[in-house]
Amino acid sequence: MSAAAAAGWWAGHRIRVLLPALFLAPVLFFVLASPRSSPSFFAPPVSREHLPSGSRVIWAQRRAVEWRPCGWWQRKAMPAPGSRNGYIRIDCYGGLNQLRRDLCDGIAVARLLNATMVLPKFEVAAYWNESSGFADVFDVDYFIEQTRGYVEVVKDMPEEIALKEPFKVDCRKRKGHFDYVESVLPTLLEHRYISLTPAVSQRRDRNPSYAKASYCQGCYNALRLNKKVEAKAIELLQVIPKPFLSLHLRFEPDMVAYTRCAYNGLSSDSLGAIEAARGEDRKVLIGDDARLWRNRGKCPLTPGETAFILQALGIPTETNIYLAAGDGLMELEGFTSVYKNMYTKSSLLAHEDFERMHGNTKAALDYYVSVNSDAYVATFFGNMDKMVTAMRTMQGLQKTLVLSRRAFANYTAAGLAGDQLSKAMWDAHRADYVMGRGSALPEHCFCEFKL
Ligand SMILES: *[C@@H]1O[C@H](CO)[C@@H](O)[C@H](O)[C@H]1NC(C)=O
Ligand SMILES: *[C@@H]1O[C@H](CO)[C@@H](O)[C@H](O)[C@H]1NC(C)=O
Ligand SMILES: *[C@@H]1O[C@H](CO)[C@@H](O)[C@H](O)[C@H]1NC(C)=O
């Protein structure tokens, strides 16, 4: 096998290699960790004080708690739907990771209503100026195969139903908890075929277990990129120098405008871009409001702040960093002046290739690389970060951390700077990492394991 082919194989088979390893790990631990003989690969140094200087890194801290997919939903023994109530198409809006979030929620709703799912519709045209549908990003046959026994998914409907347009049910504007069975089932029974956009903030933990299991299986075990997109992603993964850390920065004009935070020392270019993105109802917060908001961790970290925290976490400045982000980042010099080995998809892929790519394909590449990187650090906890941390957890990849904007704001507000701030950042993130909080998965699909 050539090196390139080997790398491709590695990328494609990693999950299959890692999953058994994940389940073997506890067994190995008991076999190998007999008194005083713990092998070095299994016993990372517990405290940084005992490490030779220079090797202090957050990932070497021994975890007390680790998240793993729970066993209950991976055993296929869910009750079959009690009845067949009709057909549902899930209509999803926004960028890739938001589409995916809506799809995941929609899978649970379809099962909740005992409806048969047809392939979801991705309403991306307005957003990305492209018409990429579900099949343009994801592997359709794999999705159908993997959701079997959880929720019924079909490519084709009976002709008399396929001819009509579905009746539209849009739940995006709904606030608070509401009952899909109560409010949507009558419409489904009446029209037999509906399109549904799920509500954004519903409590998923109140669903019956068969709907929860469908959510977990459909979202975390049934979505993989189609062959064409995956091939491109593997090509990208191969050319990134290893080992590498994937970093999701989120310091873009729209993000900064949206969060209404003020920053000192931005360039006039950045300030101009932020003002241009600012709507009437998004005025900068000032005074106490601004301070409280920032202390609640609501303000995105700048590239410079991110570099400071990564250094505080002992991540060497020569680390290869893949920047999983769009092209609109501001103040990037604040990061690249410290971490110089930085790579982006536009720097690694052939120019023509890159120009031809759609927004969703680009987002899919970042997603894939981040799920398969040695380490992943998020500076925000948006839709992409939630999906990536969850998928990494599925694969047993533990070097995953969401930086604490709250801790950074808190300590800088308290006047800490330099070494003191660095020490405070280390302590806060070390505690998060050890307790599995940094990438905590607030969903019923994942369970905490005490180590
Ligand atoms: C769906 O099927 C389950 C059994 O799997 C049943 O308990 C439930 O009442 C059914 N719900 C609807 C809305 O038909
Ligand atoms: C959208 O895409 C079409 C076809 O690729 C192109 O001709 C058009 O200029 C694009 N529109 C915008 C607003 O980017
Ligand atoms: C700031 O940090 C202090 C000390 O850890 C803690 O007691 C306090 O609750 C924190 N405040 C916020 C807003 O996070």
Automatic annotation (TrEMBL):
Membrane topology field: Single-pass type II membrane protein
One GO term of the biological process aspect: fucose metabolic process
Entry annotated with the keyword Transmembrane: yes
Pfam families in UniProt: O-FucT (PF10250)
Domain of life: Eukaryota
Keywords of this entry: Carbohydrate metabolism, Fucose metabolism, Glycoprotein, Glycosyltransferase, Membrane, Signal-anchor, Transferase, Transmembrane, Transmembrane helix
Signal peptide region: none
GO cellular-component term (any): membrane
A single MF term (Gene Ontology): glycosyltransferase activity
PANTHER family xrefs: O-FUCOSYLTRANSFERASE 13, OS02G0726500 PROTEIN-RELATED
Protein family (similarity comment): Belongs to the glycosyltransferase GT106 family.
Name of the molecule in the record: O-fucosyltransferase family protein
Species of provenance: Brachypodium distachyon
Protein's gene: LOC100844287
